[in-house]
Design goal:
The complex is a heterotrimer.
Chain A: H1 14-149, H2 153-169
Chain B: H1 4-8, H2 10-33, H3 35-45, H4 55-66, E1 71-75, E2 78-81, E3 83-88, E4 91-96, E5 105-112, E6 115-120, E7 123-125, E8 152-153, H5 158-183, H6 192-212, H7 220-238, H8 252-269, H9 272-279, H10 288-330, H11 337-374
Antiparallel strand pairs in B: 1-2, 3-4, 3-8, 5-6, 6-7
Chain C: H1 6-35, H2 40-69
The chains are: A mainly alpha, B mainly alpha, C mainly alpha.
């Protein structure tokens, strides 16, 4: 009976070891130089470009959103401005109307005042004229009366005597 | 890896039920009646086995199939002789393996350009001076150890041919893919490129990046080479005919070479931290005599485990498949094939998965060992 | 007729141990994945590594058995 020292399965064969080492090292160097380097580089580059594209899309989206919100803001602002302008215009109109009313009122009042003053003035002048006329008329009447009275001498003498009498009394 | 739908399907259950029924019937009825015919069956079908009968022959046959060989056997008597290259005491001796016939019992001395050799179980030895009692020129000592001298055998064996084929396939495929990347820069992958790109990305994102962190770039070529080399050879080993069937990744010399590469890479790349962890571990000083040897042994057990894991996994798969087929010859009934073949099919599917997982494990453990070596600050425990 | 070496029995025993170990790993990993499906890929990788380490034990036993069966008598 024979005994094999070691199962051939678990004793590494030097020939195969040498061949596999040489082949594997050559394979490794060739593959890393001509295959893995460009493949890994290309994969990285593509990944980067995809990432860039995604980032750009994201940025564009954000920009768009920003633009939209800006537009909305602008619109809102415009609307507000329009409202305020309208309001202001209304106010101004009201004020103008009010002012006009006030002015008209005051002007009317002034005119009335003036008219009143004029009227009183006229009245006064008219009164004064009437007074003058009355006085002159009364003087004329008095003159005429007097003349009539003093047409005879006797009466004149009597009057002078009267007057002298009065003087003597003094 | 999801096989549940196969087991759940009604068809599978039906087929397996009938297979079992059929085989039981064939056992009980057929093999008893045709005992005489069985021997003919055996001798007609079991051409690989030695003429003698018995379980020993089956295990010899299995070992023969798993082991390396100087010729590539196709079927029947058809085989390709491969060149034998021997580094003998008289210098380099080369000849084709079929030049001196197929006698591998050590009973014939062959004269290869002046160097006397004897072929014993597929290996070449220097013959003994005198013929032994069993008619061979091989002598054993009292322990049963072979004492014949042996030239350094660097022949182009079956495994070496398989190795070269796999290397050429890898080169053609991946340089082709690299050119495709250059040609179609920045475009979507196409054809073979799109099949292998997810796997390359798998190696990068699931193996290299989680283990090695930001330093993964420098080790990517090694990890990718080792992954695809192991994977392709695992798959080629599963193909039962040329150019497969060589059991290259189930050969301990090859896995030893791969593990050695990882070991050299970790040792060369090991930084101060790594060596500090080995020679000045974080333990009280009086434990150093105990811990330092353990740490040093640990340096070597990691690649050895790596070597044995791949070797044993792939070899076990091959042995399993061959054993199941051998059931037909052991039980001496061709109807056993009704059970054995579905089983072989099932195991082969599992082996497909195992081939991938082992390549993955080998690569991820290599990455893990490298990452241990290059880690900047070891996490305090 | 049963022929074989006692190392085969040893390998079988080691396979039982490794089987229990890998079963535990797989079961716990499944539990973890069910609890945290978002961590599934990470758990899977870790599970495979752990399973590989356990499996190595059985494989060592298998190799020892190979050493044993090499002895022809």
């Amino acid at each position: 009976m024979i005994l094999l020292a070691l199962n051939p399965l678990v004793s590494p064969d030097p020939g195969l070891f040498i061949w596999s080492t040489v082949t594997f090292l050559i394979l490794f160097f060739l593959l890393s130089k001509f295959a893995w380097k460009p493949i890994v580089k290309a994969l990285d580059e593509r990944e980067r470009s995809i990432e860039d594209a995604l980032a750009k899309a994201e940025m564009a989206k954000a920009e768009m959103a920003k633009l939209i919100s800006e537009n909305e803001d602008l619109l809102k602002e415009a609307r507000l401005e329009r409202d305020s302008i309208l309001k202001e215009a209304k106010e101004i109109k009201d004020q103008i109307v009010n002012d006009a009313k006030d002015l008209a009122k005051s002007e009317g009042a002034k005119l009335i005042e003036k008219a009143k003053i004029e009227i009183t003035n006229q009245k006064l002048t008219a009164m004064a004229e009437i007074k003058n006329q009355v006085s002159s008329l009364s003087i004329e009447i008095a003159e005429k009366v007097l003349r009539k009275q003093f047409e005879d001498q006797g009466k004149q003498q009597a009057l002078v005597n009267d007057l002298l009498k009065e003087v003597k009394l003094n | 890896m999801d096989l549940s739908h196969i087991f759940n399907s009604k068809k599978f259950v039906n087929i397996s039920f009938y297979a079992v029924l059929f085989s039981v019937w064939s056992f009980s009825a057929y093999s008893q009646e045709h005992k005489a015919a069985d021997n003919e069956h055996l001798s007609a079908t079991a051409e690989h086995a030695e003429p003698a009968e018995g379980d020993e022959d089956i295990s010899q046959m299995i070992l023969h199939h798993i082991a390396d060989s100087h010729e590539w056997h196709f079927f029947g008597n058809v085989s390709i002789p491969l060149p034998v290259i021997l580094l003998t005491d008289n210098g380099l001796v080369t000849f084709l393996s079929n030049k001196f016939g197929h006698n591998d019992h050590g009973t014939e001395i062959i004269d290869a350009s002046g160097t006397k050799l004897v072929n014993y179980h597929g290996k070449f030895y220097y013959p003994s001076k005198v013929k032994s009692a069993d008619g061979t020129y091989i002598s054993h000592d009292s322990q049963g150890e072979l004492i014949n001298g042996k030239p350094l055998d660097i022949s182009i064996t079956k495994n070496v041919v398989s190795l070269l084929i796999s290397a050429i396939v890898l080169l053609i495929v991946f340089i082709g893919i690299a050119n495709a990347y250059k040609k179609r820069e920045g475009k979507a992958p196409k054809g073979l490129q799109s099949i292998l790109e997810p796997i390359i990305l798998f190696v990068r994102d699931d193996i290299a990046k989680p283990q090695l962190g930001h330093k993964y770039k420098g080790f990517m070529p090694y990890l990718l080479t080792i992954f695809f080399f192991v994977w392709l050879n695992n798959l080629m080993g599963l193909v039962p005919f040329f150019p497969g069937g060589a059991n290259l990744s189930g050969n301990i010399a090859v896995t030893m070479m791969l593990a050695l590469c990882t070991f050299i890479l970790t040792t060369v790349n090991g930084n101060k931290n790594y060596w500090g962890h080995v020679f000045t571990p974080h333990v009280p000083w009086w434990l150093y005599p105990l811990i330092i040897p353990v740490e040093i042994i640990g340096l070597f057990t990691k690649p050895i485990a790596l070597m044995i894991r791949l070797f044993a996994n792939i070899t076990a798969g091959h042995i399993l498949v061959l054993s199941l087929i051998s059931l037909i010859f052991i039980l001496k009934s061709v109807f056993v094939a009704g059970v054995a073949i579905p089983f072989v099919l099932f195991i082969s599917v599992i082996e497909l998965v195992v081939g991938f997982i082992q390549a993955f494990i080998f690569t991820i453990l290599s990455a893990l060992f490298i990452s241990m070596a290059i880690e900047e600050k070891y996490a305090e425990h | 007729m049963i022929v074989g070496s006692i190392a085969g029995i040893g390998a079988g025993l080691a396979a039982i141990g490794a089987g229990i170990g890998i079963g535990n790993i797989g079961g716990k990993a499944l539990e973890g994945m069910a609890r945290q499906p978002e961590a599934a890929s990470q758990i899977q990788t870790t599970m495979l590594i752990a399973a590989a380490f356990v499996e190595a034990v059985a494989l060592f036993a298998e190799v020892i058995a190979f050493l044993g069966t090499g002895q022809v008598n």
